[in-house]
């Protein structure tokens, strides 16, 4: 028997648990530990609420969670109820699958002004993450600036632009839905330091912007290289550029504009006690394809700025950390003897949800090579005794199912659920 602890119940965590079952069969016990009382991490609070088909992958994780040798241990915080050294003493292997849930800082003057928020916080706000439920972003002004040229920036722009009716069938939380209903934002500017060919936006997400009821994407045709250059792009990327070219040619008039401002680098955020404008420097690409400022600047009015420039894994005391990369320091997943990292905690915030599956299987192969069965480590019963002695209020997967049932019962018409947005409410729902 091998005893394995996985820290984090998102895609990387559950794919690692699945890989443990495939590798070791019945001769393994996996405890998936999470600081929240609810599982699935990014799937629950990171994926856009109007992308329900993507969230359906959680059913695969649920199948793993309901097996006898995998257990969810929710509402347990590493460093408070239990430490990494303690877990290493109890388990044959400890796998860090914490993801990258913190925003990469926007390091320009004015980034600390009220009205500036990172995408992790903003996405967490409309997805009901307890850490961000009280964010209350300023939606009363006419302008919003979204910094970034990836899919998260598209998600933020789309959510800001949608009508109430377009949220039918989504699980956007009630407080965000109410706030967006009274929003005054009519211009959403997406700032990208480089040009259309350098975006990290996928065709599906870009295509959705062309189907919005009251909002139209606006692209300047002068920003594109010659159309023949599109042939050098990967097929998926070429489809994305085709969407942008179609947007540039369409000239659709709608009350809300989503403006793609390419070759635009934010250099400062200004305002009297709050965000009022973003100062942007025009850029060009150098011979290496990097954005270089030209010295020409202009102001974009905004009462809300959402920075979508990447994520970082929070450090854990005693675990080697690569501050430059914003993830745990590791050698192909090995961090310390008995300690491993997987998913975004290992490689940084890159790839798709599905990328975590082969990553999990690769880590488990290393665990198999590094460990022997029946080492004498106690695993699950020893953790239970330690947590009980410290008064931890552990949430099981069966408890989570009660929480989920209560969320489904509270859903507004047409919505799959109404998420609890506080840990207290989640814990209280276990008795319903």
Brief description of this entry?
The protein has about 425 residues and is of the alpha/beta class. The chain has 15 helices and 19 strands.
Provide the residue-averaged pLDDT.
95
Q: What is the CATH class name of the largest domain? A: Alpha Beta
Share of helix among residues?
Answer: 25-40%
- Termini gap: 36 Å
Oligomer: single chain
What CATH architecture of the largest domain do you see? 3-Layer(bba) Sandwich
Number of helices: 15
Query: Unreliable stretches, pLDDT < 50, 5 or more residues?
Result: none
Rounded Rg: 23 Å
Q: What is the fold named in CATH at topology level of the largest domain?
A: FAD/NAD(P)-binding domain
The largest beta-sheet arranges its strands as 3-2-1-4-19-18
Which of globular, elongated, flat, extended, rod-shaped describes the shape?
globular
Which structural class best describes the helix and strand composition?
Answer: alpha/beta
Task: State the total count of DSSP E strands.
Answer: 19
Question: What is the number of domains?
Answer: 2
Strand content: 15-25%
How many strands, what sense, and barrel or not for the largest sheet? 6 strands, mixed
CATH superfamily of the largest domain: FAD/NAD(P)-binding domain
């Amino acid at each position: 028997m091998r005893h394995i602890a996985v820290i984090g119940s998102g895609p990387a965590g559950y794919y690692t648990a699945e890989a443990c079952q495939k590798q070791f069969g019945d001769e393994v016990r996996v405890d998936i530990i999470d600081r929240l009382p609810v599982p699935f991490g990014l799937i629950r609070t990171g994926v856009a609420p109007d992308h329900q088909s993507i969230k359906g992958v959680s059913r695969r994780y649920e199948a793993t969670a309901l097996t006898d040798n995998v257990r969810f241990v929710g509402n347990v915080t590493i460093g408070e109820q239990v430490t990494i050294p303690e877990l290493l003493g109890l388990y044959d292997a400890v796998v860090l699958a914490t993801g990258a849930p913190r925003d990469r800082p926007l390091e320009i003057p004015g980034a600390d002004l009220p009205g500036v928020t990172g995408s992790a916080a903003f996405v967490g706000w409309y997805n009901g993450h307890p850490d961000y439920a009280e964010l209350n972003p300023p939606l009363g002004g006419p302008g919003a600036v979204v910094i970034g040229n990836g899919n998260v920036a598209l998600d933020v722009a789309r959510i800001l632009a949608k009508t109430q009716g377009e949220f039918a069938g989504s699980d956007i939380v009630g407080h965000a839905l109410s706030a967006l209903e009274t929003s005054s934002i009519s211009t959403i500017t997406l700032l990208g330091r480089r040009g259309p060919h350098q975006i990290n936006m996928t065709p599906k997400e870009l295509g959705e912007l062309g189907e919005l009821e009251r909002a139209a994407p606006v692209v300047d045709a002068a920003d594109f290289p010659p159309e023949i250059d599109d042939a050098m792009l990967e097929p998926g990327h070429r489809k994305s550029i085709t969407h942008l070219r179609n947007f540039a040619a369409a000239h659709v008039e709608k009350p809300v504009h989503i403006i793609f401002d390419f070759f635009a680098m934010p250099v400062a955020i200004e305002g009297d006690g709050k965000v009022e404008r973003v100062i942007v420097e025009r850029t060009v690409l150098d011979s290496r394809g990097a954005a270089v400022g030209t010295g020409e600047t202009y102001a974009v009015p905004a009462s809300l700025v959402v920075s979508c420039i990447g994520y970082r894994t929070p450090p854990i005391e005693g675990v080697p950390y690569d501050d430059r990369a914003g993830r745990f320091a590791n050698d192909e997943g090995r961090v310390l003897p008995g300690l491993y990292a997987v998913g975004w905690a290992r490689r940084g915030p890159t790839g798709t949800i599905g990328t975590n599956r082969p990553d999990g299987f690769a880590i488990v192969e290393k665990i198999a090579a590094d460990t022997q069965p029946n080492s004498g480590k106690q695993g699950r019963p020893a953790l239970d005794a330690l947590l009980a002695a410290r008064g931890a209020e552990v949430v099981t997967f069966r408890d989570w199912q009660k929480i989920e049932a209560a969320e489904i019962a509270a859903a507004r018409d047409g919505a799959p659920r109404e998420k609890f947005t506080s840990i207290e409410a989640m814990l209280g729902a276990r008795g319903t």
